[in-house]
Amino acid sequence: MDCYTANWNPLGDSAFYRKYELYSMDWDLKEDLRDCLVAAAPYGGPIALLRNPWRKEKAASVRPVLEIYSASGMPLATLMWKSGPVVSLGWSAEEELLCVQEDGVVLVYGLHGDFRRHFSMGNEVLQNRVLDARIFHTEFGSGVAILTGAHRFTLSANVSDLKLRRMPEVPGLQGAPSCWTTLCRDRVAHILLAVGPDLYLLDHAACSPVTLPGLAAGVSSFLQMAVSFTSRHLAVFTDTGYIWMGTASFKEKLCEFNCNIRAPPKQMVWCSRPRSKERAVVVAWERRLMVVGDAPESIQFVLDEDSYLVPELDGVRIFSRTTHEFLHEVPVASEEIFKIASMAPGALLLEAQKEYEKESQKADEYLREIQELGQLPQAVQQCIEAAGHEHWPDMQKSLLRAASFGKCFLDRFPPDSFVRMCQDLRILNAIRDYHIGIPLTYSQYKQLTIQVLLDRLVLRRLYPLAIQICEYLRLPEVQGVSRILAHWACYKVQQKDVSDEDVARAINQKLGDTPGVSYSDIAARAYGCGRTELAIKLLEYEPRSGEQVPLLLKMKRSKLALSKAIESGDTDLGEQGLVFTVLLHLKNELNRGDFFMTLRNQPMALSLYRQFCKHQELETLKDLYNQDDNHQELGSFHIRASYTTEEHVEGRVAALQKAAEAFNKAKNDFAAKATEDQMRLLRLQRCLEDELGGRFLDLSVHDTVTTLILGGQNKRAEQVARDFRIPDKRLWWLKLTALADLEDWEELEKFSKSKKSPIGYLPFVEICMKQHNKYEAKKYASRVGPEQKVKALLLVGDVAQAADVAIEHRNEAEMSLVLSHCTGATDGVTADKIQRARAQAQKK
């Protein structure tokens, strides 16, 4: 353990810092890093180098080369730069490379050098050119800040949702600031800049002077600034050689260190660990690296070659032409276990396990010492935690073996933390491999989350490893394997050297019916790559027709889309209906004749379109019936048109005439005759309105007759009845009802005596009683036939006479009916009379 701490460097009394090698770089750089524009993404991300940037001493004919490498130096992409001069490079949170040009245009490239998009930072930037630029990260995404030749700042806090903000002018700024940086405070991006001995903070509304609390006197200029990874702390390097460290709110000073070097550093970045009370800054010059904090002494390293610093969540990555290293504060658990002469429970447990492997009795002594202090659970937890922070697998195994050894002597130690750490370390060791080149630490991995890590493996096209991790962690298929296979398929369709048939077959064989995979999404990617036939083949594997149709329409395969929509069964007439959507698309795309011919071949679609036309496009519906020689439906169309679209009688009659002709062609004699009768009725009603006034139009024949009777036009009513062959029984009913409504009892009596009633006289009784006229009703009750006599007498309230008639008829049903109408003492005699008649009938 003493040897293990050989690379530990103390910073004061409370913290140690160590630097270890991540990779031996084998990227064969032809130029020094100082001659390149460099950008490295955090969380073990890729490195971008733009060789031969626009420098006066370089030949104008030499084209720059943009190269992208993994963190281990494995080449990912190389492309000749054919655009304008680049001022700055930077990586977004999604690992897209942002290249800020001198004209303010930002080009966005993927991890493999594929061009994604571009955007401009505005006309003012274009006119004044870009002097300097920064790519920064906020909780909203990745932003770009620009310093123009007019010494004004423009920024966008999120390049995915571009909203440019022109920052206020800085008073007295005649040249470029000595240093500047972006700062995120209160969810708003600010710019902090130095002008001589003064600091200014810019937001969207104002330029505010800033004073650093406790800053040493004599500062005439600020040479470098650095904001911590979490944007909570700020460090500035002054021309006096002092480094001031404090909070980003400018309210508190943490410390101030005199490094005795006045030359401006190449880089200055924060190096701090989450939840650590220690704060340190790493400063780099040409050949010197210095770690300073709240301690009188610093840690210094000699740099043998040009190096570049990459701030991380829990440390700093340092890479050069030959090596890639990681500098960080030693975690507490590791410090407790490995520091010299440590008696921490984790240190004793590690020694106990080593002695146990040697079969030494000292193992028991160490173990007893831990148990006597009751610190065995703490010792196991310390070893598990320390294993997570170790980079080398051998030391991870040693610490986990110690933890496993200690667990054996505990009754109820939960295994979750141990199992989870084993899983996490297996994943971390896999992605740290040289060929993968993602040197995440345990803290970075937990901050990044497994889903983001899987996304980054997919971006690097490391599909097998991503799938193995999903299967190892037993992630749900929709979140894990299915999602990765979908990404693989989207990449597969971009391989244009493979035939459409082979690509479609390979994708189907690999994906099958995997849940969560959408073949339509893959087909859309194929179509976006210009492979329409491949997209159609892939859509054949999509089980949901609703997913096939939109893309088929987009690809101008409307007839195929119509077939798929009909197969789906989604025949809703609303805008969301699938077949309806395709029909409207076809209507706009094809000429009228071709559209109708297409519908003829699809009966369901034709039926649906007819329903639509009935509500929206009547003329189109008529054209459809004409083209199909559907005379029956054409006749019905004209009938509806006569009532819905025509206002004048002449127009309605003309529409009915067309309907009658259509029905004759359809050999529907009944419909044709009924239509002709309606035409006669309309003409008659028009004449009646002209002669008599009142309203007759649109009444039925019966209502027309009734209206005439009510108007005293009995002869006209009878004439209409004869003309339209209304049966006598129906006419009598109509006249009876109308005269009763008029209460013209005299005319009603004359009418009843005009000839023998074809409907009998019981209706007369009923109608009179309905009008509450018992007197008139009794007149007709005596004329009612024997079979209905009892009912008529009961209607007029003559129960006694009804009883006599029922007894005379000897009809059991009639006697029961009379009995049901007998109420109280008044009808008691009648009831007894019926009962006696019943008894006599039963004796016989």
TrEMBL record:
Any one Gene Ontology cellular component term annotated for this protein: CORVET complex
Organism superkingdom: Eukaryota
Protein name stated in the entry: Vacuolar protein sorting-associated protein 16 homolog
Residue ranges of coiled coil: 349-376
Protein family per UniProt: Belongs to the VPS16 family.
Membrane topology reported for the UniProt record: Peripheral membrane protein
Domain Vps16 N-terminal: 4-420
Subunit: Core component of at least two putative endosomal tethering complexes, the homotypic fusion and vacuole protein sorting (HOPS) complex and the class C core vacuole/endosome tethering (CORVET) complex. Their common core is composed of the class C Vps proteins VPS11, VPS16, VPS18 and VPS33A, which in HOPS further associates with VPS39 and VPS41 and in CORVET with VPS8 and TGFBRAP1. Interacts with RAB5C. Interacts with STX17, MON1B. Associates with adapter protein complex 3 (AP-3) and clathrin:AP-3 complexes.
Keywords: Coiled coil, Endosome, Lysosome, Membrane, Protein transport, Transport
Keyword Ion transport: no
Residues covered by the Vps16 C-terminal domain: 517-840
